[in-house]
Structures are given as C-alpha cells and as structure tokens.
Sequence to fold (409 residues):
Amino acid sequence: MLVQKKKISKKMLILWVGVFGVALIAGLFVYQISTSTTPNEGLTNTNSSFSKLPIPKDFGKDVFADPRLNDLEDHAAVTGMTEQYQVRVAARGTIEPPENLELFSNSFGGKVFISWSPSATDVTGYAVERATSGGSFQQIAFVSKDVTNYEDTNVINGQSYTYQVKSVVTHEKNRWNTIRVDAVTSGNDGVSAETASSSGVLISFASDDSVVAVKVFRARNGSSSLIATLVNKERNYLDTEGRATDTYEVIAFDQYAESDATQDATVTPKDTAAPMPPTEIKVTNVGDGNSVMITWMNPLDEDFDHVKIYRSFKQGMLGTVIKDERSNYYLTSDGSCVPIPTDQTERAKVGAFLTDQDGNVLETDCVIDSSSTSEGTTNYYTLTSVDRNGNESATNIVSPYGRTNPFLP
Fold:
C-alpha cells in the first residue's frame, strides 16, 4: 500500500511542473503584447539593427530568370572572370609536330579513326604514317592543315596497327593529273606510267634538281589514295599493286620539310558486333516419322557466314547444337529441301549458287533434321546468326509466359 502512494506522488509532481511551465510561457507572451504601444511595434522597433539592413532591389526575383546565373558571359563579367588561351612559342626555323594523337575503332571494326591537335607552327598539312607487325612506318595519307583527323579503312580486323603523324611544310612546283598506264601521249610531259615486266606499274619522272619530293596517288573505281612519297631525289616508283586500268596523279615539290613524329599509338580493330538474326523461320514435319524441315531467311549483314541451330526437348532451353556450319541443303521452287549437288555439272543444272572467294557455296536457306528424332516427340528449335568473326546473334529465348520482367527487352 505504501508503494502505491509513492507512485501517485511522483505523477502529481510531474503534472504540476508541466502546468507551471505552460503558465509561465503564457504570462510572458501576454506581458510582451501589453507593453507594446502599437500592434506592429514589436516588428518595427527602430532600435533594432535588423530594420536598418537595406533591402536588395532584386529581392523576390526568380533565380532561374536571373541573367547573372544563366548567361555565362554576363556571369563572367559580374564575377570578374575570363577565359585563358595558351600557345607554345616554337623555336625559329623549327616545325612543331601535332599533339594529342588518339585512335579509335568502333565495334564493327574494319576501320580506324585517327585524330590529333594542330601544330603550334604554320604548316601546309599533316602526314599520317602507319606500321604493321613491327615494320617500318609508311605514309598512308596527307591532309591539309585545316584537317586534324583521318579515317583508315584499309585495315584487317584482328591485326595491330601503329600510327604516328607529322607536320609538313611544302611548296608545290608541278602537278600531273590523269596519267594513264601505257598511254602513247598522256599529255603529262616528264612523267610516264608503264606496265612493268615483272608485275605492277612503273612510274618514272624526268630529272629536275629543283624537285626535292614527289607524291604519287593512284585512282581506282572512283577513289584516289596516296601510295608513295619519294624524297632524296628518287625518280622511279614501282606500284606492285598497280593495274592497267588505273590512273595516277603526281605532285612535285621544290620545298618539303617534316617535323618529328608524334608519340605513336597502337590499336587492333575488332568486330565485336553481333549480326542480325535469321527471319521468317518455319519448322515443319516432313511426314516420314523422324524428319523435320527448317527454313529461314538469311540476314543482310555483309559479314554474315551461317545459321546456327539449337534443338531441345524442353521448352525454354537452348539444348544442343545440331548445326554450326553452312548448310548443304537448298530450298527448291516447289518448297522441297534437298542436298546441294556436289558435282559442278549437276549443280549448274539446278541453278546458280552464291560462292565465297574459295568457291564454297554460301549459306542457303534450309536444312533437314533427322537425327535423334522419333515419332511422338516434341522438339524445340532456336536459330541464330554467326558472322565471319564468330559473333553470334542473341540466344535469349522468349518466355512462353510472356515478358515477366518489365525492365528487360
């Protein structure tokens, strides 16, 4: 009984302390109001230092409409900041090389993008040089001084290439255009192009001591490319890849000077992009109790090689590979899938087949699956495309229950 009374006494004490605190606060508030001469005097007390602070003219202005924050030029003027520009003073008589050489190859490969920063000195243009497999550098392009990039499309995927760029100062003395091979009169005195006895085309120039360098360009199929830069008064060049149908352009210079090369860089172009999948896929029962005919339409990718076929006895599973090479069947006009004749004469009778450079028939559009199948079984097939670099189209199987994850394609 004594314990119960003690608990009640503590509760009463806490309650009275709370009531006293509330009363004290209320009394102070009433006293402040009663001592004020006007209702707003407490906010406009002239003795308050707060009231003496000046109110900004743009008080309440929308910060997003303030030009000092949205206009960089005005912002720079307000803050007293400005941009800075740099230039390196080159030694007299020197030719500064370009800087910041960068290489890039896309996921399809087949080309390399080269870029650099311009030279600090006034130049005529830039010479792009390339080396392969530890060999010496050869000039592959010459661009004007306003150009700071080049696209090299004469590359093979999987092979490493090293590049460097030089600044060049030149003065052109003479130019010969449209030099035809073995022409009796080419209209270009002093320059000739003749079929070499061994192979290629031999280009010769008349002797001229004032010429210090010569550039040779070959034109073929509507495009022209630099094939040689001759210095040290060389007067002959053998184009081992030249053809009788090619035409040539020759430029002679009486001034030709190069800078040191940029720091070289190496890249290996690779094709990592998957081809498009086959389309219009049909799987039908042949009717003999153990064979299935599969037909499709090949994708249009330039590097497409063949269709790969998976077979499973369970829905949603890839299963095992039953075809991973070019098909030896073809679809006839009456819809039959029959083997391609191995004899060239017989093959010619049924029609023309596209072949690769080795004479092998390219991928056709059907195949017969008669392995490990039996009456009453249900087979599930998945077809993908494979390119010449081994890249395969997607193997993700669409769920029979639809798209269960809304965040996946």
